[in-house]
Amino acid sequence: xxxxxxxxxxxxxxxxxxxxxxxxxxxxxxxxxxxxxxxxxxxxxxxxxxxxxxxxxxxxxxxxxxxxxxxxxxxxxxxxxxxxxxxxxxxxxxxxxxxxxxx
Length: 103
Known about the structure:
- By secondary structure, the protein is mostly helical.
- It has a single domain (5-102), classed as 2-Layer Sandwich (Beta-Lactamase), CATH 3.30.450.
- 55% of the residues lie in helices and 7% in strands.
- A hairpin with a 5-residue loop joins strand 1 and strand 2 (27-30).
- The radius of gyration is 31 Å and the shape is rod-shaped.
């Protein structure tokens, strides 16, 4: 029976990302499609790397996007709270001035 190179790792024929890691997240196996998806030409380049390194940039991008969405909301909320406090302080003063002015 004749075997070619692709028979040694059948998952290389899969178009999907297939990988295995240790408990600490170190890549022990990855197929060719996964390596190409991550920007590498060969799977051997990825083996030994920590999987967290690949997700770090994506997480940073999403956190920045979420922060940029929350900043305007927080400014409006804090502005509303400050406005409420200012009105709560001045309303009794205006009421007292109108009572003093009526006497």
